[in-house]
Amino acid sequence: MNEITNTKNYQTFLSEIKEQIRTSQARAIGAVKSEMIILYFNVGKAITQKQKEEGWGARVIKKLSLDLQKDLPNVKGFSERNIKFMHQFYNEYANDAKGKLPVSLLQVSWSHNIILIQKIKDKELRHWYMQRTIEEGWGRDTLIQKIKQEVHKKEGKLISNFKTILPPTNSELVQQSFKDPYLFDFVTMAEPFRERELELSLVEHMEKFLLELGSGFAFVGRQYHLEVSDKDFYIDLLFYHLKLRCYVVIELKKGEFKPSYSGQVNFYCSIVDDVLAHKDDNPTIGLILCQEKDEIVAEYSLRNMSQPIGISEYELTEVLPKEFVSSLPTIEMIENEFSNIELNENK
After folding, report:
1. In this structure, what CATH number is given to the domain that contains residue 299?
2. Residue 43 and residue 151: Cα distance in Å, rounded?
3. Which of 40, 198, 286, 331 is the right S-S partner for 86, CB 3.0 to 4.6 Å?
4. Do 290 and 164 belong together in one domain?
5. Average pLDDT, stretch 89-105?
6. Does residue 222 sit within a domain?
7. What is the separation of C-alpha 88 from the centre of its chain, rounded to a whole number of angstroms?
8. For residue 64, which of 112, 105, 100, 21 has the smallest C-alpha distance?
């Protein structure tokens, strides 16, 4: 390896990098994120080229970091560790980009790009998570969590009748907008719990619930009231999907899926189409969430339904141990306590 300290080539190289930094800073107004990623890509490219041309080894990264921090003390982001990431970033995409940065990489932050490189080696899969990050607005921690959960294996996997009910142009989009299973790890429940308790917990954690459902869901109401022939009916959770342009009826069920659930949801979807939906809305979609399902039974239950319905499982990963159940108040106990308070206040 050639000596790099105080050589003319290195000093010229250092000057070029500093000039790139200054030029990039000047252009960065209104496009900070994109300019920064382009700069980092170009720094990685310059290091790779000089290593090939001059025979410099990995030590050039440490020296470059020290000199940049000394000469440009107000410029952040050029630690030895981050410059190593720049070097890795360029080499990861150099062949794909044919020497230029792929535009898609500019649509996510630098930290997102590094997470994707470190955690996902398959580039097609990496691109999938990159697109979902853009569409869903995933933050850094959320992206890490989604990769850990392998959400790519769940999306579009639910049992549904979308293909037989919806036009071909819509059915695939609708299918990909839902998944199986849904992970409600932000909800802590005690066994045995009731559907109403889960429903209340999901509403209480609505922001996380919406994040798990995916982009486009807008919450309309819980126990949404419908009146038909002077009879009252209540939808567990009602949403409107902004991208699909339709209402989404969600019914929460504890335990195993039962065929009767499909008829119930089909009924609710029909009413929503008639009473709530605008004439330009797409057909209301039903989503049945249960803890487990027999796939054959689920498929048969949807065969003669007139409304688009999907059936998915949900998982609660943070369930309180059974030994704590006896120490926790039940819903009846809480409601009785409230009733006693009201009686005492009215005396």
Report:
1. 3.40.1350.10
2. 33
3. 40
4. yes
5. 80
6. yes
7. 26
8. 21
What tokens were used for 262? Answer: 């499909």
Q: What is the token pair recorded at 132?
A: 């979902």
Q: Which domain holds residue 301?
A: 159-325
Q: How many domains does the chain have?
A: 2
Q: Extract the tokens encoding 342.
A: 């009201």
For 65-76, what is each residue's pLDDT tens digit? 999 999 988 888
Geometric angle at alpha carbon 107, from 47 and 115, rounded to 5°: 60
Instruction: Find tokens 């000469």 and name the residue.
Output: 71
Residue 171: inside a domain: yes
pLDDT digits (tens, 9 = 90+) for 186-217: 888 777 788 888 899 999 999 899 989 988 89
pTM of the model: 0.67
The residue behind tokens 């189409």 is 273
